[in-house]
Amino acid sequence: MLRPFASLAEFDRRLFDRLTHRERRAADRVLKRLSDAADHSVLWLSITGVLTLLGGMRGRRAARRGVVAISLTSALVNLPLKYLARRDRPHPRRQRPMLVDLPGSFSFPSGHAASAFAFMTATALEKPSLLPAILPLAAAVAYSRVHLRVHYPLDVVAGAAIGTGMGLASGAVVRSGRRWWNSTTPLHADQRPQTKQLILVGSPHSGRHERLGHAREVMRARGMEVVGELEVEQLGRLPSLLQPNGSQPPIVVAAGGDGTVGAVANAIVGLDVVMGILPLGTSNDFARSIKVPTNVEHAVDLLWNGRISRIDAGRLQPEGQAPRHFVHAAATGLNVAFAKFATRADLRRRLGRLTYAVAAAAALHERPVFACDVEHDGQTEHLELVHLSILNAPVFGGFLDLRIPRARLGDQTLHVIMVEHLPIRRLLRSALYPAIRLHRGIRGFRTMQVARLTVRPPRPMDVTLDGEMGGRIPGTFEVVPAALRMITPLGLDGGGDR
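RE: above sequence
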C-alpha cells in the first residue's frame, strides 16, 4: 500500500478504536434502533410518505427527488464501489458483544450514510425548511454505523460525500425524465368546448375537497355557470340532469381524485357528453396522465380553453355481472388490501391524511398470495401473485410519479403489471426502477401490453377500479377505444376528434 494511503488507513483505525472502545448502553440502544430503521432506506421512504400527504406540492416534489437520490446512490454504492474497494469490515471484539450482525458486503463506503445524505440533500434542495430536521437525523444514522462497529469512520465520511453528490445530481435526473416524457407524447389540437354550463360531481373524501369552494368562485369569475352539483354517491341522478333541452349538454366535471374521475367516467360512457376534471385528490394520477394542471385556477381555465379529445377506457366484465369501466387502473392483491384499510371511516376520522401511509404499510405487511389463470393472446398461464394491475393511463404510483414508457391514452392497449411474492426490498426496488427510468428486469416482476385479458382465480376476488372497491373476478378486462370525450390541454396523440 502506498505510504499516504497506509497512513490514512492507520489513522482511520485509531479513530475507530477511540470512538468505540467504551460501552454506552443508552446510546447503544438508541443508535441501534435508528440504524435498524434506516435498513433498506425504510426510514427515508416513510418520511417520503409523510411529505407526500402533508407537505403540499413542494413536499411531494421533495419526496420524489429524495426517492430518486436514494435509488441512484444505492445503485452506485452497493454494486460497483463496494466491490472495487473490497475493504473488510472491522473485526469484532471478544470482550464486547456485537449489537448488530456484520453485513456480508464490503465496508467501503457506508451505504447507510450515503442514502441518508442523498435523501437529506435532495429533499432540502426542493424544500429548504426540511434541512434542520433531516440533517441531524442523517448525521445520526451515519454515525450509528461507526458506533455499532460495522464501519470505519472513513467509510461513513466517504458515503456521506457520495450521497451528497448524488442528491445534487438527482435534480438533473428528475428534469431529464420530465423532458423525456414530454418528447414521447406528441400532441395535436382539437375542438374547444361549446358550453360554459357545468355539472360538478365531487367527493367529500377527496384529499383537497376543501378547495372546491375556491373553484366555484373562480368558475363564476370566468363566466361559467354551475347548473347542477352532486356527490359521487348520487351519480344515479346524473342522467336526469343531462336531459336534452335543445342546447349543448353541460360539461360533467369530476371534482376529486382518481376514484371520482373513474366513477363519473363509468356513468357517462356511451353518452354524448363532454367530461372535465378538477383534480382535488391526493395523487391525481389520471389527471396528470392527460396533463391537467393540479392548480385549481389553471384547471378551471382549462375547462373553457382546453380541447376535447377522445380517450380510451378500460372495462371489466365480471362473470355473471354488469360491466364496469375505469380510466386509470384496475387492480387486485396489494391494492385491494390497501383500499380496505384506506376507505375505513374510523381510520379516516382518527388519522386524517395519514390514513394512506398506514394503509400502505398494512398492505405491504399482509402481502396476500393468490393463484390465478391468466388468459391473453390465445395462451393461458397459471400464476401465483401478490399483485395484479391493469393500467389504462401512463402515470401511476402517486408521489413516486412512475410512468409507463411510450404509453398513451389513445394507444388502444392495456398495460399489465404482475408481481409475484417478493421480499420487501425487491418489492420496493421494483417500484424505484421505473421512478429513475431504469429499464431493468426484476425476477418476479412482469409487464405486458394487451387489448384483452381474462383472469380466473379459484375463488372470487375483489378488484379496485380507479382506487375504489368496484368489481370482482373471475372476469375479463378489455380496452374500449375512444370511449370518452374529455377536456385536455391538447388532444392526445392517437385519440380521435369530437
